[in-house]
Amino acid sequence: MALRVQRVSAQLVPVLSLSLRTSWSVEHVREVEVARPPCDAASITQLPGLSWKHSLRDFKPVEVDAGASASGARTRPKQAEPKTAREARYAAQSLPAPEASGNPVAPLVREFIEIFPEKAPAILPPDRGVRREIDLTPGAKYCVTRQWPLPRDQTAAIDAFFESRHRAGHVRESVTPHCSPTFCVKKATGGWRFVHAFNKLNDATIPAQTPIPRKEMVLDTMSGSTQYSAIDLMDGFYQILMREDDVPLTAVSTPSGMLWEWLVMPQGLKNAPATFNRMVSNLLRPLQSFAPSYFDDIFIHSRAEGGMTDVEVHLEHLRQVFQVMRDNQLYANLKKCIFCAPEIPVLGSYVSMNGVRADLVKIEAICAWSTPQDQKQLRQWLGLATYLHNYSKNFASTVRPLLQLLKADTTWSFRPEQHAAFDATCLSTAPVLMLLDHSKLFHVVCDANDFAIGCALIQFDYEGRERMVSCQSRQLKPAERNYPVHDKELLAMRYALIKFRVYLLEPPPAPAHGALVSLLSEYNFVVHYKPGKSNILADALSRRPDYDPRTQWGCHAVGDDEDDEECAVCLAERVAAVETAATSPLRDAIAAAYEHDAACSDMVKYLRAPSDSARRRLSPRSRSRVDRYAMDRDLLTYCVDRTDTPRIVVPLDDDLRARIIHEFHDSPSAGHLGREKTFATLSRDFYWPHMYKWVRK
Q1: Model confidence at 203, in pLDDT bands (50, 70, 90)?
Q2: Is 567 buried (19+), middle (13-18) or exposed (0-12) by CB count in 10 A?
Q3: Alpha carbon of 256 to those of 160, 195, 252, 253: distances in Å?
Q4: What is the dihedral of CA 556, 557, 559, 560, to 10 degrees?
């Protein structure tokens, strides 16, 4: 407001120049003549030019944004994605995109195109065996909230919305004593989002105890898969019928004076997400081994099996899921679906055949966070950083100096130790977790220090590398910090067993071991290890020459150095040496067996004489990994990565593979190690698919 004085009729008359600016940047200027300047707020509000009726006449409909309000920027809608960028993203995920790129799922999507509509059909959904039920607490009264007035354009939008739902059979007029108001929220992409204020109804509703799928359980089913798809269901809340007795409770009012009640489950009801999740889980229960669901997301994963490739199996799995959706009139948003991909996002992580990795966007957000200035900012960062506690070793020890600043009696002081803990370098290099394989043994490593304990669940992958499945850590309580070292170690073991209990309880004893376990349970004994040189009697009895199975292979024990070249272990150690003997029985056997293995034979021919025709004869898997193969004279070698030592590729010959495993396990130089150590030693020098299964046999 500005005050200026001008001369009117030979006297000075104060003129107030009033500048009114609304929150949507529309400015109105009015000049008001007064006899004397106002001296307080009360006299200013009494000016005739500031009458609310006078002000409303100056507002034109074209000048007012439908999403504006008196609260200013707090309710201003967030910045929408540019239309051109959004259209480009949607075009890349529409049906023509996979068809143009040759995605094998495109014909299948075209066959089931009715489950991928632009908008969900405006019809009453079928009864799928699950209805939305509202159970009120005993003694609950009528749930009534008065409808407040809304601008004319919002009222018109609400009326149009309910008219369309009425034609679809989703709502009907009501005379119930219950009533909840309706209002609008501006969408970032334009238009209105309609909201029902079911506050009183939700307060009187008994919470549902429907279990929510755990992320770990969803990920555990994906071990060993190589093809992945993700389906996003559309308009889930309008796809479930209401229980008839509970329809009156859903009554909502409109600013125009109508009272509607929902025949389908609307948004905003308590327990609605759990009901929708229960419906999807019930429909997909027969397919849950390869199609786990999480609310409106369905994750399909497949691997090669039954003589079919992974793509063929995956297409069959997709067909079964699509058929369930067609039979039950469930619809998906094609623009948000992912099909036949090597990696998909799953509940905040990314899953592929290599394992589970953290979302790089979230890691970047953690690393780019500015240094906290107070406890509130530190709590915000810790809440985000906790996302990586499953990926980061010793997470509790790392953030311990920061947690000290959250104590009530601590003065805020960000010292060098806090800066070191805040450094997100260790978090930004979070490892890729292995998807656990229930057919392999689990290894648990744990450790304890003066202020924290940690543990990790370990498995060996199909390449023989030690991979982390999960890791956990926590700080020690004040009393636990006084424990002796051995008690802290025991505490770490107990913590590991509790955290990984669901995995360590399985697999159960094999049928062949059941009788042995039952027999041993009757005795009270302690097992001590006794080296073979000290266990002379039992060792001699177990090594009778007539019991030696190596006579079946024509092998003999390694005596002196002149026989070393016939040992598989020695051959592997000297495969890259120039002085390797030109003639070796095992080397010749491996090289000769390449001719009887089509995959190895094609790879050997391609490496010796590279050509386009020879490359086309390779399988898709071999073609994608051709840079990992090489020839060492007459032997084919394979490297897992560039830093890996070349391994001898053993062709598909059961007798040859059994002989190599026998020498790595039973020969004197092998040491008769256990299954895991034998596999780890063997996989360093030799390679063939499914090697672990051979060792396990």
Answers
A1: very high
A2: buried
A3: 11, 16, 12, 8
A4: 70
User: Within 13 Å, how many C-alpha atoms sit on residue 79's CB side?
Assistant: 1
The C-alpha atoms of residue 362 and residue 288 are separated, in whole angstroms, by: 29
Render pLDDT for 658-690 as a digit per residue (tens, 0 to 9). 888 877 776 655 556 677 778 887 888 888 888
Q: Are residues 252 and 214 in the same domain?
A: yes
Question: Are residues 362 and 347 part of one domain?
Answer: no
Tell me 187's DSSP state.
-
484 & 560 share domain? no
HSE at residue 261, side-chain half, CA atoms within 13 A, is 17
CB atoms within 10 A of CB 345: 15
Beta strands across the sheet bearing 349-352: 343-346, 349-352, 355-358
Question: Alpha-carbon distance 392 to 398, whole Å?
Answer: 9
Q: Domain check: are 313 and 210 in the same one?
A: yes
Residues 27 and 128 in one domain: no
Burial 51-64 (b: 16+ CB within 10 A, else e): eeeeeeeeeeeeee
Distance CA 72, CA 234 (A): 33
User: Considering only CA atoms, which of 374, 429, 376, 377 is closest in space to residue 398?
Assistant: 429
Whether residues 164 and 294 share a domain: the answer is yes
Regarding whether 426 and 318 lie in a shared domain, the answer is no
**Rounded to 5 degrees, what are φ and ψ at 28?**
-125, 135
For the record, the structure tokens of 630 come out as: 């090489």
Specify the pLDDT at position 118. Answer: 86
The 10 Å CB-count burial string (b at 16+, else e) for 160-182 is: ebbeebeebebbeebeeebbbbb
> Crossing angle, helix 395-403 and helix 375-385, to 10 degrees?
170
Report the alpha-carbon distance of residue 183 to residue 155 in Å, rounded: 9
Residue 59 pLDDT > 50, yes or no? no
444 or 290, which is more confident? 290
Helices (H), 505-653: 511-520, 536-541, 568-573, 585-593, 598-608, 612-616, 620-624
From CA 351, how far away is CA 364, in angstroms rounded?
19
How far apart are the C-alpha atoms of 219 and 352, rounded to whole Å? 10
